[in-house]
Amino acid sequence: MRFSASAGRHWLFSGVSSLALLAVINSPSYAETSFTEGDAGYETVVVTGEKVSRSLQDTVSSVAVTTAKKIDQEGITDLFDVITRTANVSDVYGGMGFSIRGISNRGVSGGGEGGLATIYVDDVAVPDVAVFGGPRDMWDVSQVEILRGPQSTVQGRNSLAGAIIVRTQEPTMQWDAKARSQFNDNGGRQFSMAAGGPIVEDELAFRVAVDDSYSDGFIYNPTHKTNADPRYTLNYRGKLKWTPKALPGLEVDANYTHNTRKSGYVFMYISTAVPDFYHNRLDFSDSPNKADTKMDMASLKASYAIAPAWNISSITALSRVRDTSQYDTDYSAVTQAYGTLWRDVQTFSEELRLQYEGDRLKGLFGLFYFDRNNGNKSASVTNVVTPTATLRGLLVSNFGLDGATATTAANLYTTALPVIPVSYTSDAPQKTRTYAVFADGRYSITPDLTLLAGFRYDYEENNLISAQTASFAGTYPTPNAYGAYAPAFTGLNYVVSQIVASAGSSAPARSESFGAFLPKLGLTYRWDENFDTSFVVQRGYRSGGAQVNVARSTIVPYDPEYTWNYELSLRSAWLDGTLTANANAYYVDWSKQQVVVRLGLNTYDYQTENAGKSHMYGVEFELNHHLTDDFDWYGSAGYSQNRFDDFTVNTGTATTTLAGTHFASAPNWTLAAGFNYRFLDGFALNLNASYRGRVFSANGADQRDYLLGGRTLVNGKLSYAFDQWSVYLYANNIADMQYMVYRYKAQNVAILGDPRVIGGGLEFHL
Description:
Blueprint: H1 10-25, E1 46-47, E2 54-55, E3 62-67, H2 68-73, H3 79-83, E4 89-92, E5 97-100, E6 103-104, E7 117-121, E8 124-126, E9 141-148, E10 162-168, E11 176-184, E12 189-200, E13 204-215, E14 220-221, E15 226-227, E16 231-242, E17 250-264, E18 270-271, E19 290-307, E20 310-328, E21 338-357, E22 361-385, H4 388-397, H5 403-416, E23 419-427, E24 430-444, E25 449-472, H6 486-502, E26 507-528, E27 531-542, E28 545-549, E29 554-558, E30 561-574, E31 579-598, E32 606-628, E33 631-650, E34 655-657, E35 669-679, E36 683-692, E37 695-696, E38 707-708, E39 711-722, E40 725-732, E41 740-744, E42 749-752, E43 757-765
Parallel strand pairs: 7-10
Antiparallel strand pairs: 1-2, 3-9, 4-5, 5-6, 7-8, 9-10, 11-12, 11-43, 12-13, 13-16, 14-15, 16-17, 17-19, 18-42, 19-20, 20-21, 21-22, 22-23, 22-24, 23-25, 24-25, 25-26, 26-27, 27-30, 28-29, 30-31, 31-32, 32-33, 33-34, 33-35, 35-36, 36-39, 37-38, 39-40, 40-43, 41-42
Helix pairs in contact: 4-5
GO cellular component, one term: cell outer membrane
Keywords: Cell outer membrane, Ion transport, Iron, Iron transport, Membrane, Receptor, Signal, TonB box, Transmembrane, Transmembrane beta strand, Transport
Subcellular location: Cell outer membrane
C-alpha cells in the first residue's frame, strides 16, 4: 500500500418537559453507572465519540450505543444491521448510505461533495465512496456509537447530521482467542478468528482479527446464467498497544486494517416487469453490474498524562480507497448503455488534543489538519433522453419556425431519435485541505448546574479540475426522409451534435476557500442524583466546494451551508439502576442548503447550488431494562419531520418550487424493540424487531411516485453455550417481509430489501 500525505416544535419541547416533571415527582434512587444487559450483571457503557470518555447517562448528545455483548446476542454481522435497528437512523438504497434524523450522509438531494455524516473506524474516517464497499463487518468490534445531531464542534466538516463511531477490540495483557464458522441458506459462509496477548509483559500487547465471508446474493441474471450479486468480503486487522514502564502515563496505539469487498454494483436493480418479482429476482443486464473496493486504513494514537489533571494526545490517520465499479443503465440483454467508474481516494489527517479534568472544569482544546486527494475517472456509453422541449424552443428561436410547425418537427425528431447515444469519458481529480482549531468543555457553576460550551473554527481549501470527452455514438435521422421537415431535421441534427460537443470540453482548475465559526452553548441541570435535563444550541456546517456540470463541461462553485440546532435532552434511571429512560428532542433551521438543481438542457444538465432552506424537528426515546439476571429488554422510538421551506428550480424554460416537499430517505417513524432470555443453564434467546415508516426515495415535485411503504423486520437468535464452545441458529427477516428500498417506475426496475435468511454457526472461545 502507498499513501500520499499530500409552533410545530413547541409540542415536542412541551412533551419532553412534561416527562421531565413527571420523572422528578416520581424519582426513585438509581445506580450512577450506565449499563447495558449482560449475563453477569451490569455492563458499564462509556461513550467516546465526543473525544472524551463519559458514561452514557452523562452524555448530552443523542447517542445510541451497541456493545460487543449486544452484537453477540443479536448475531449482528454488518454495521447496517445496527443502523436499521436504531431510532431515527435508516439505511439508504439498501446499504449505499445511511440517514440520521432524515438527513442522508451524502446530502438531502445529492448536492455537495462533502458528507453530512461520517463513519469512523478506530479514529479513521471512511470516505463516502467506501460506505458501501468499506469495512462494515462487526467481527471483533467492541462498540458502535451512533451520535445523532451535529458534531461539528469536535468532528468538523462532515458531521452536520451526526457521526458513527466504530471501536474494535483493544489488545490486552491477557491471552485470548476466538473463532467462528457460520453458514446460511443463501449460500453464505463466514469464517472468522481473533487472538491477542502480551508481547512484552505489562508493556506491549497485540491483537489480530480476520473475517472472510461470502454469499450467493439474491438476484439471478438469465442473460449470463449466473448469480448477479454474489458478495465476497475479506477484512483483516492488526493492533498494538504500548505502555512503557520507563515512561509512566504514556500509551501508544497502532492500528492497521485492510478491507476487500467484491459484490454487485451499489445500485443493484431487479426487473419489476417479472411476475412475483419478490421471489423471482432477475437482472437482465448484458454489461457487468459489479463493484470491487479495497480500503487500507492505519492510525497511530499517542496519549501522555503530563500532570494529574492534564493529558496530551495525538492521532495520525491514513487511508486509501480504490474502487472500480461497472454498471449497465439500459437494464436489458442488449448492449446499449453501460459504464465504468474508477475512484482512488487518499486521505491524511492529524489531530492534537490537550485535555483537562479538574474538579469543576473539564474540557479539551485541539488542532486539526486534513488532506484528501480524490481521484475520479469514468468511461461510459450513455443514452440521453432527447429533450423535446429544448429542441422545439430552438426551432422557434434559432430557426424562425412558428410554434405549431416547431412542435410537430420536434415530436417527429424525438420519435426518430428517442435517445441520444453518447460515448463519454471524464477525469475530475479533487483536492481538499482543512485546518481547524476547536474546544469543548463543561464548567460546574453549582453542584447541580453545569455550563456546556465549545467552538470550532474551520478553514477549507478546495481544488477541482475537469477534463471530459464526448462524441455521438449512434446514427442521426436522415433529413430527406421527412419531406417538408427536412430543413428542420438538418438543423436539429446540428443542434444535437452541439449538445454532445458541449459535454466534451475541459474546464480550467477551480479553487475555492471557506471559513466557518461554529459555536456551542448549553446548560445541564441535575434535579437529583436520578435525573438530568440539558438544553444545547449549536451551529452545524458543511463546507462549500465546486461540482462539474457534465452537460455543459463547466465547474460550478457553491457556498457552505449552515444549521442552527436547538436540542433538549433527558437522562434518567429507575428501579435501582436496572432501568434507564433517555430522550432527546430537537429543532433545526437549515439555510443556504446545497441541493441539486436541474437546468433542463438534458438529464445530465444539473449542478449543486445553494438553493434550499428547510426546517426539521423530532424526538428520540430509548429504554433499557435489566429485569432479572436472566431477562432484559429494550426499546426505542424515533420521530422526525423534514421538509423544504424554500427550494426553487429555474430550468431556463420554467420555474418550479419544491417548497413543502420532503427530504428523500427520511422516514417519519422508526421503532425498535427486543429482549434477551437466558434459560436452562446455557441456552439464550434473542428476539428483536425494527420498524421503518413510509419514505420517499427521491426528491422532487413527483416524489409521490417514489413513495415506499413502511416495513417491519423481525430477527432472532437461539444459542447454547458449553465449556469453551457455543452453537447457535439465527434468522433474519423471519416473516419474509417483502419491501422495496428504491423503485424507478419509468424503467420497471427496483432495489429490494433482503428476504428471509436462516443460518447457524459454531464459536470457540479460549
